[in-house]
Design a protein that fits this description.
Shape: globular
Structural class: mainly alpha
Largest sheet: 2 strands, antiparallel
Strand content: under 5%
Distance between the termini: 33 Å
Helix content: 55-70%
Number of domains: 1
Number of strands: 2
Strand order of the largest sheet: 1-2
Order of helices and strands: HHHHHHEHHHHEHH
Number of helices: 12
Low-confidence stretches: 1-20, 288-294
């Protein structure tokens, strides 16, 4: 994918309604069409789909992800009155592969560095290869798509429209970290670590590429490689191809919460997030706050 994301995705989608929103008038209609209204509506819709399908058998999480995309498109086009180039099918595979490549490099570098410094040792789990990979891919596709639609597609864009992109990245990062407090071993540090490494990186990635598929590819590869390596994913310990033994300080290994509470990926994420923000600024992606009709 080229880095000319302004030309490809454009900021025209943020300039005002491209399609007619639902025809509800009055105060309720104005509230519904505001960034708060359409973002909350979309968040509830996507969250309901995710709740019903995320842990389903076989391809159910992927079907749920497709349904979540449909809900997102409906809300953005019919209620927000906005075009949705961020979920365009054209170029989607290229965006997902580029994001996936960055995510793969990031997570492998983190795993290798922690292992090099004596934090992890791995052994083959002995489980069926295909069944474990199939299950991991299905679940993580569902997770990555629905979380990115909620946090970057809806929440970030609503905040961006009202208060600008810097505030949007900061606020969604904090909420993204807080959303992962339910895992085993979660604490204030793990929430902050995820806010810094994942929330900020994925927010910057979206602002740079303006593509849900790009951030989904990055998110999916990150989670899937962790799971297959046997490392807990945000405090959850699903079946992987390997079992991992952690040695030494939790600051290095992340403890029972997993790699995402280690200082290593937090530091590595800076090396990815900063260039993305620089590229976004170069391509016109970091625009100041702008008044809107909503």
């Amino acid at each position: 994918m080229s880095t000319t994301s302004t030309a490809k995705y454009g900021h025209e989608a943020d300039a005002g309604p491209d399609t007619g929103p639902v025809g509800w008038g009055g105060r309720f209609g104005r509230i519904l069409r505001s960034p708060l209204g359409w973002s909350v509506t979309g968040l509830v819709g996507v969250a309901l789909v995710a709740g019903l399908t995320a842990t389903g058998p076989g391809p159910v999480p992927v079907l749920g992800a497709a349904a979540a995309v449909a809900v997102y498109a409906l809300v953005m086009r019919r209620i927000a009155g906005r075009a949705t180039p961020e979920i365009a099918r054209s170029g989607a595979a290229r965006e997902a592969l580029l994001g996936g490549g960055i995510g793969l490099g990031f997570i492998l570098a983190a795993l290798l560095l922690i292992t090099f410094f004596g934090g992890y040792s791995f052994s083959w789990a002995g489980s069926g290869f295909m069944s474990v990979v199939w299950s991991a891919v299905m679940v993580q596709i569902g997770t990555a798509v629905t979380e990115e639609l909620m946090f970057r597609g809806l929440f970030l864009q609503a905040l961006e429209q009202r208060w600008g992109r810097g505030i949007a990245i900061a606020v969604t990062s904090v909420f993204f970290g807080a959303a992962h407090l339910g895992g085993a071993g979660a604490n204030l540090w793990s929430a902050l670590a995820i806010a810094l490494q994942a929330g900020a990186m994925l927010g910057a990635a979206y602002i740079w590429r303006r593509s849900i598929w790009f951030v989904t590819g990055l998110h999916f590869t990150w989670n899937t490689v962790q799971q297959l390596a046997g490392v807990p994913v945000s405090g959850h310990d699903p079946e992987g191809l390997f079992t991992v033994d952690a040695h030494g300080s939790a600051a290095l290994t992340g403890g029972i919460f997993g790699l995402e509470a280690s200082v290593v990926p937090v530091l590595l994420s800076v090396l990815i997030t900063v260039p993305m923000l620089v590229l976004a600024r170069r391509d016109g992606g970091l625009l100041p706050r702008r008044r809107t009709r909503n």
